Amino acid sequence: MTNPPVSNRPVTIHRRNFLRGTGVALALPWLESLSLASSSPNATPKRFLSVYHPDGVGLPLKSDPAWSDWSWFPRGGEKDFELTKVLDVLEPLRSDITIYSGLSHPAARKVHGHSNADQFLTGADIGGHGPYKNSVSVDQVIAGHAGEFTRHASLVMSTNGGIGGPRGAQTQSFNQEGRPIPAMNKPKQIFDTLFVTSGKDAHARLARSKSALDLLIANTKALEKSLSKQDQQTLKQYLDAVRDTELKLAKAQKWIDTPTPVIDTSNLHLEATPAEARLYFQTMYELIYLAFLSDSTRVATFQLGRENGEGPHDLLSRAVGLGGAHGLTHAVKQPNGWKNLGTYNRYQAEEFGRFVQRLKDTPEPTGNGNMLDNTFAMHGSASSSFHLSRNYPIISAGGKNLGFTNGRYLKFGKGNEDNQAGAGIDTDAGWQGEARVQEEPLALLFTTLLQRFGVETDSFAGITGTLNRV
């Protein structure tokens, strides 16, 4: 892949000049933003990416011949770890990544792996059945802090698109009220949202949308007095969604006269679908890269399918000549079962590594190292072995200028230093069994993240404190 032309620096400077010149960002927030991001006049963006993959990873027992090659977690200690065949594609990036074990969300540890993805970035106690209530995801907290300086507060993507259903979300991102944010899954749609101008009638269409919204709000407020308590609650949820639309319209108004960035499209294949797995995967990652490079957004999520069923993501394993991705986790005891699941996990890591390398190879448009130095990118799942909502397999990359030290394999908790708790299972006995090991809350890592992005907080998802050693 070739890097885009260095036409991005003028774009960034032009956009910031516009923001200051029109008074959209007042002096004090502008200065606070600069002080949080960098001490230099040209503020360096801090970026966040979360990539989620469903169905967990392969964890054969040590007694299984597949253990030496196809177990996801590395062997060894913090710095002398050895990658198995599943993650050895990341060896060239060894000094830029950190691998975590022993982290999970306490509220989800007894939830079936087909119902746990909704809480990966929220940590909420959504339960495995019954009433459902989620909370804000960590990416949206970061977006709320940094999003005013970009055209798009965040970029929400998935292979399946939309929101899915409770405990079967097709998006990682949840707003302040805990409602799912619809994900985009068509490369052309994402590209147009990021980089295609709205046209000459944009002002008129925006005005019509605002007028219609004002009328809707007035009518619903008048209706509220005559509703039952249950209906009033339903209406409140509806009005929360309307307020989200209000905010989006206000943001669109601020940016409507600002030219969209000019970017290099040579690596894009906008008509690709999951059926063309490798092309689709790489195009989606390229769109994230271009969104970050042009400073169109600083926050992105990408969900590689949903838990709780098949879908377009099932086609991604075609890239490595395998059948449906979801079925691989159910066939680990068949001939070459662990190898097949490990091969697909390896492919996921390979594409993530390709994206990470792309960031590393690109000088930061504002200076201050390369783009990876200023980006915290994480790749993980809310399951380890078969449907087990514990010991999440997580990789992070980058973030040097955010205070993260890489080249490490960090083990947390007690009693599972060799990551064999739940290994070898291919039935639901694993997630139904009692946990015999101690794990640390993943929320501790999220609080650490938020603090390094400049968010003043000492807790996330009801858990106070930060994660040591990171």
TrEMBL record:
<dbReference type="Pfam" id="PF07586">
    <property type="entry name" value="HXXSHH"/>
</dbReference>
<dbReference type="InterPro" id="IPR011447">
    <property type="entry name" value="DUF1552"/>
</dbReference>
<dbReference type="InterPro" id="IPR006311">
    <property type="entry name" value="TAT_signal"/>
</dbReference>
<protein>
    <recommendedName>
        <fullName>DUF1552 domain-containing protein</fullName>
    </recommendedName>
</protein>
